[in-house]
Specification:
mainly alpha, 627 residues, Sodium/glucose cotransporter, 23 helices
């Protein structure tokens, strides 16, 4: 009898619990219905604004492809006939450096980790004079369509081929991620279909890049840069206006230690310190300004060095403005969401969805603003892909067809070949989007691959221009050694990150005032945070090195190992080098040594350390043919 009473009480308890749970679930559902995550949606005005940007981009390509003066040579198609204007070239440079990933990621970086990364703006101020004084004179003197042809002249064709193949892999990987990642982030918040967004970007970009060549790329980049900056400024101004006082925005970030510019911790594992952002960042941006094929190709699209120097400063100032606006946007995001973090509350799944959520919910009350914002994101994706396609066409024609296979492209078919190659790489990059989608880890590797490969390539050019005793064996062994080491560190870090063993030290966020968040949810979130913190102590230190050091590591190893191997295998005789292959201060130094020893300055290249049949051509013959 006693057991029956216990059973009855147990059944009643379960029934009451079930009823209470059902009531709680019903209340939760009703609360969610009354407080939807997405308040506004894309309107016909937004679609119209986005369509106008895409149509104008196509029209620019149509004009330069079919209505403007006919492009008859590779110089016309790949370099714009070297008659482009300074400001358009500068805007194109800035547009190609700013990706959609950064436009979404920088405000989220400010929101979650603070302002330390803004100090990368100092890198622009450091790198521009270095580029102008030490690297640019060599490129402008030789005027080679493919910058990697320099490595053939200075060392041998194996260095040229290595750099070209690395660039191809880098660009195909990076462009696919640079389009897919922001499209995915936008789709979660705005409702835009990911595949439609990706397809639109590639169709428009392949069309104008393949038909209009460098002229269309630069002029479209200029138009898109205006759209991009306009969208950023309008969102910031409206955001400040909605809040009412910029000092409130600043103080909210300051009071939670988000305003931080001088974290001088020398530990290499600190993700963003003053040293990693400024020094490591300088090496990264040097890879973009000093040894990137797309950038160098644009330098050659104008007539003289003074134009390039002005363009470099204009692009640097533009980048600083964009970064500053991005970080102010991040401060606005924190002021709006300081009491209800959308990611912690489960409203969004990744930090790069934070800005789109803000725009669609808060800015959605202003007709056309979400459309202008998405147009700006699309513009950044288009600029990245268009520059990549044009540069890939250049190195394929120059380094692969002519340099590797010795295929002489008829002058009357050169433009056709370049157009077909642009289309091929556009389609290849588009197809790679589906691989990136299936293998999420590839996305992170692709983003880091930029810094890894860029550092090695910068090291090869630096070795050639600044170490006159370096030879071909040193260059190839140094670059391969550096590549192996940075890939080991970088991919190892991504593997650890894939298993959630590397986590960011985020600033304080709260869900205290989120609707429909109960205490149980908050406790579970707290437990998850504690568990991930325990795991972080198990990682090997080498994989925790900040990604910002990858470019410096790759560059320094290439130069140091390359110099050592050159000295051990028989250094290059500087007197046998064409002085145009050396950076101006090194050139003056070698010339002064030659004057003192009263030795003649012999033109051409004799690389005594190599026993390779690389079919090198003397520089004076090449330069005369170029002229």
């Amino acid at each position: 009898m006693k057991q029956q009473y216990i059973l009855i009480i147990f059944i009643i308890g379960i029934s009451l619990s079930s009823a209470e749970l059902s009531k709680t679930n019903e209340q939760q559902k009703q609360c969610n219905d009354n407080n939807p995550v997405i308040i506004n949606f894309f309107s016909w005005i937004d679609y119209t604004v986005l369509s106008i940007m895409l149509i104008v981009s196509c029209l620019i390509g149509t004009f330069y492809g079919f209505l403007s003066s006919k492009q008859e040579t590779n110089n016309d198609f790949l370099l714009g006939g070297s008659h482009m204007g300074t400001i358009p070239m500068a805007m194109s440079l800035a547009a190609s450096f700013i990706t959609a990933i950064e436009l979404l990621g920088n405000p989220a970086e400010m929101y979650g980790q603070g302002t330390q990364f803004w100090m990368t703006c100092l890198s622009f101020i450091i790198v521009v004079p270095i580029t102008s004084k030490y690297y640019l004179p060599v490129y402008m003197k030789l005027r080679l369509t493919s910058s990697y042809e320099y490595l053939n002249l200075r060392f041998h064709k194996h260095c040229r081929l290595l750099a070209s193949l690395l660039y191809m892999i880098q660009m195909v990987l990076y462009t696919s991620v640079a389009v897919y990642a922001p499209a995915l982030a936008l789709s979660h918040v705005t409702g835009l279909d990911t595949y439609i967004a990706v397809t639109l970007v590639y169709v428009v970009c392949i069309f104008y890049a393949s038909q209009g060549g460098m002229k269309a790329v630069i002029m479209t980049d200029t138009f898109q840069a205006i759209i991009l900056m306009l969208s950023l400024f309008i969102i910031v101004l409206l955001g400040i206006n909605d809040i009412g006082d910029f000092m409130d925005i600043w103080n909210n970030s300051k009071n939670t230690n988000r305003i931080e510019f001088f974290n001088i911790d020398p530990n290499l594992t600190v993700r963003h310190s003053f040293w990693s952002v400024v020094i490591g960042g300088s090496f990264y941006w040097a890879t973009m300004f000093c040894s990137n094929q797309s950038s160098i190709q644009k330098y050659l699209s104008v007539q003289n060095s003074s134009q390039v120097k002005k363009a470099l400063w204009v692009s640097a100032i533009s980048l600083i403005i964009i970064y500053t606006v991005n970080f102010i946007t991040g401060m606005i995001l924190y002021t709006v969401y300081k009491d209800c973090d959308p990611q912690k509350a489960g409203y969004i799944t990744k930090s790069d969805q934070l800005l789109p959520l803000y725009v669609i919910n808060i800015m959605g009350k202003y007709p056309g603003i979400p459309g202008l914002f998405v147009a700006g994101i699309f513009a950044a994706s288009l600029g990245t892909v268009a520059s990549a396609l044009n540069s890939l066409a250049a190195i394929t024609c120059e380094d692969i067809f002519q340099g590797l296979f010795n295929i002489k492209i008829p002058s009357n078919k050169a433009v056709l070949y370049a157009r077909l190659i642009s289309i091929f790489f556009g389609i290849l990059s588009f197809l790679f989007v589906f691989i990136v989608e299936r293998l999420g880890s590839v996305m992170q590797v692709a983003l880091s691959f930029n810094g890894m490969v860029g550092g090695v390539t910068l090291g090869m050019f630096t070795l050639g221009m600044f170490i006159p005793w370096a030879n071909g064996k040193g260059a190839i062994i140094g670059s391969i050694t550096a590549l192996i080491i940075v890939l080991w560190i970088g991919i190892g870090a991504q593997v650890e990150n894939f298993y959630d063993e590397i986590n960011l030290d985020s600033k304080i966020t709260s869900i205290d005032h989120c609707p429909c968040i109960n205490e149980t949810t908050a406790i579970l979130l707290s437990i998850n945070t504690q568990e991930t913190t325990i795991w972080t102590s198990t990682i090997s230190k080498i994989y925790k090195i900040s990604y910002l050091w990858y470019s410096m590591i790759g560059c320094m190893i290439t130069v140091i190992v390359g110099t050592a191997v050159s000295l051990l295998t028989g250094p290059q005789n500087p007197a046998d080098l064409d002085s145009d292959l050396l950076s101006p201060p090194i050139k003056r130094f070698i010339d002064s040594l030659a004057t003192k020893s009263s030795s003649s300055n012999v033109k051409g290249i004799t690389n005594l350390s190599l026993e390779l049949e690389d079919d090198k051509i003397k520089c004076n013959v090449i330069k005369s043919s170029i002229k």
